[in-house]
Amino acid sequence: MWSKIKRSTFNFIISVVFLIEVFLLIFCVSTTFKKSDMNNKNYDYFNNDTIRILHNSEYSGASNKTMYELFNNYSNENHIQITCDSLYGNDFYLKLQADFSIGHDPDIVITAPGYNINYLYDADKLASLHKDILNDTSWSNNFDESILYTTKRNNKIYGIPMGMEYLALYSNNELLSKCGLDVPQSFNELLFACDVLKQNGITPIAFGALDSDMLLYQAITASLGGYMELTNAIYKSELTPPYALAFERMQSLYQAGAYPTDFESIGRLESQQMFLEAKAAFIVESSSFANTIANFSTENYFSDGKFSISAFPTSENVQKARNEFYKSNLIPVPYGVDNMTIHVSKTAYETKHDEIIRLIKYLTSKDSAKLLTKERGDISSVKSLSSKTSSAPTSNIIVERNLFIGKCTEITPMPDTAIDKYVWYSCISSNLANIITGRTDASDVLSNTSALLDAARGG
After folding, report:
1. pLDDT (tens digit per residue) in 315-330
2. Strands 410-412 and 332-337
3. Can you point out the beta strands (E) in 133-253?
4. 91-112 burial, b for 16+ CB within 10 Å, e for fewer?
5. Could you tell me if 382 and 372 are in contact, meaning their C-beta atoms sit under 8 angstroms apart?
6. Of the candidates 243, 260, 247, which has an alpha carbon nearest to the alpha carbon of residue 208?
């Protein structure tokens, strides 16, 4: 009885908080509309001459510059108004849900596929683009069929990906060499390396708990679960055992002194800077981070072998069990389409079809893809650019970035695609530092997460 009361109270509180956040988002949007109206008397945000885009932006606004330039160029050339709301993290998913809930559906949603996008598609809020892309062979031939497969649901293509990414462990080999270390091949080796690095005054892992994407946590989860467990999590829309075990691994790293002393107050950008300035030996980052390294201008920065990219190491017993089951040495790497994946609302598809499709073809053209790839450092989904184009072709780290995924023995989904992103951010990401330090019990957070997921499903 008491557990039911606690769960009901928890669900009520979460619901109230969510409604307040949604109200604030809608209010802010309404304010923006009024300002736009004041600046342009002929501007109507909801008319058919405007294409409205909701974009899940990067943690750094700088990487959106080229995309905005493409929007502006298309708008000027085709005499059509394009508006783009770029939000990051939980703000994006709150806005996504708010807009569709109140009937202000954006025309285009640019974000990675996952639970939230699947939910909207199943609710007939997003359109299938299957016929459009298959009926235009000159367009569909731009993409690798295996990439388009990742945006299928019920055997229909519902998203057009512009980029791919994976998560991996980046190592500064010079720092490791100074301490007599190699790139760790197992979790125990990683713990040993952390101890040696600490003794030499080097922060082992550049990591900040304010990274809402929790890349380190995702990489550990993938290393423990592999393809089967993560696919099962996505199918069930719940957090399977590897998600809980990953918290224990993060606590073990904390106890080994692996993180910066101020890890609770820093985020992804600060962590990146630590690694770039050789103040930390390791960092878990996306494949696009190789582009950041290549553009970080330092004397002799492109020397052979200074950096390496590898799969995050798992425990020996986990790896042994997996090898015995699969009869092969499989090392999991999370990989999938990134936030630059285009989805179209059902309303826009029916009322602005031709203009919407023309814009999408423009954004996924080879010229546009080349510009986006150069700026963002993505692995392009366009065939001719997928492995050849980079902003710094002479950089060894870019070459290694492009070759790494082809050498991977097991590809897994991104762990954060399994559940509602609002729950991911509000329950898990917001409690990460407390879980790592032991101030909050991970089992309580997972229990609350399950309760919220049940409530969202009407359970």
Report:
1. 665 555 555 555 455 6
2. parallel
3. 152-153, 156-157, 160-161, 163-172, 203-205
4. bbbbbbbbbbeeebbbbbbbbb
5. no
6. 260
What DSSP designation does 422 have?
Answer: H
φ, ψ of residue 65 in degrees (nearest 5) = -55, -50
Please tell me the distance from the alpha carbon of residue 373 to that of residue 402, in angstroms, as a whole number.
12
Q: Which positions ≥6 away from 366 have C-beta within 8 Å?
A: 142, 382, 384, 385
Give pLDDT tens digits for 17-63. 455 554 445 444 432 323 233 234 344 444 557 899 999 986 555 45
Contacts of 427-432 with CB under 8 Å at 24 or more apart are 427/452, 428/214, 429/90, 429/212, 429/213, 429/214, 432/209, 432/214, 432/217, 432/250
Q: d(Cα 145, Cα 389) in Å, to the nearest integer?
A: 19
H helix or E strand, kind and range, residue 355: helix 353-363
Q: What is the sign of the dihedral through the CA atoms of 379, 385, 386 and 387?
A: negative
- Any idea what DSSP says for residue 277? T
CA distance 79 to 77: 6
Q: Which residues of the chain have pLDDT under 50?
A: 1-7, 9-14, 16-17, 22-24, 26-46, 62, 299-302, 327, 387-393
Question: Residue 249 and residue 241: Cα distance in Å, rounded?
Answer: 13
For 38, the token pair is: 């004041």
State how far the alpha carbon of 245 is from the alpha carbons of 55, 204, 238, 389, in Å: 33, 21, 14, 38
Token pair of 229 as six digits: 């467990």
Inter-residue contact 86 to 124 (CB < 8 Å): no
Measure the CA–CA gap between 268 and 437, rounded to whole angstroms. Answer: 19
